[in-house]
Every structure is written in C-alpha cells, then in structure tokens.
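ugh ok fine here u go
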Amino acid sequence: MVAPELRKRVHDANMALVESGLVTGTFGNVSGIDRDEGVVVIKPSGVPYAELSPRLMVPVSLENGRVLEGDLRPSSDTPTHLEIYRAFPCGGVAHTHSTYATALAQACLPLRCMGTTHADHFRGDVPLTRDLTETEVLDSYERHTGVAIVEAFRSAGIPPEEITAVLVAHHGPFTWGTDPAAAVEASRVLEHLAHMECLIRTMAPDAPRPGARLVNRHFDRKHGGGAYYGQG
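structure:
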C-alpha cells in the first residue's frame, strides 16, 4: 500500500497550485516520489480540483508507469513526470499552463536571466526544449516530451539542481524540487520571472545581460555551500 503521507503531500501540493492562481480548470498537475519504493503519486486525469482528496491521488510505478492501486487514470502528463524522475535527482514535479511562462514557451523563447531576482532562484537561463519530431508527437508524445526536457539539460550541461525549470516548446512549463511543495514554489517563481521577462522584452528588448559573477554571487548566497541568506 502506498504511504498515505505521500498521497497527502501530493494532494496538498496540487491544492497549493490552485491557490497560487497558476492553473485554470483541470489544467496542471503535481506529483511526488518515494524512491525507495519506486512509486510516483500524481493527480488523476481530468478530475476537478474541488473534487480531489488524498485518496484519489494515483500511484504508479516509476519503472513502467503501471497504476499500482485504484481504478483512476493518472494525469496524461505522467510519462513526462516519469522521465524527469528517472533523470533528475528531485522529489516532486509540477506542470502548469501559467500565463507568462506558457506564453514564452509557445513563442519558443527561453526565459533569460536578466538580473538578481532570477539569479536568486536559477543559476542562468531557463532553457527551451527543441521541437518534437512528427514521429515523437504521434508515438508516446508525453514520454518524448520528457525525453526532450532531459536532452535540453544534458546537451547543454545544465545541472537540474541549479535550474529547476524548463519551457517545453509550444507547450508550457515544468518545474521540480526536493518535494512536491518545492516544485510548486518553483512554478510560482518561474511565473513571476516570466512576467518580468515579458515586460523587459517589451520595454527594452536589447537590455544588457548581467555578468556571470553577479549571477553566481546571488545564486550561491542562497543555495551554495556557503549560503548565508535566511535563518537556516
């Protein structure tokens, strides 16, 4: 039996996604993982958020995506989540269709690091995936979406612990974190930064980029080995 604590954490994170204003209708989903058991728990497909409960979260096998308990179908994005879990050392994954991040994704524009607000959270640009091929779209589309996400990071040598977000071309954003709640927080931050990026592209499309030293300083003071931001 899947641990009820994981079901509750995933349910709470999905509710937080709604409260954040980042989803409309049944768009969006959050998952969490128990790596010791090889189990991923995710929101069921197409069920209104108001009707969700921890009991309705769907557990699937990390290895093959098979539903392990219950008769509900998992989110249609489950294969994408599984590819992220298999490749990245994270404990939670979130997907939204939030306005500004999705606008950048559908315009096929990466989210540039333009200043310290961005660098406090991500060490550099949030990448954009390549277009999927016709074959990839027609066969195992959601799995190939995950493959393209992993490829975008590995091909560019981007550490997924330092940039915990991606824009999927023509689709929308995915984020991840140490647990489901952290993945949702990354989605909130991503949308805020995407909003600023859209404003910058409108006000000053040729605005200069910050230097690497400033970006690294801001990221490391919150996330590096010698981090000193906050009370931790």
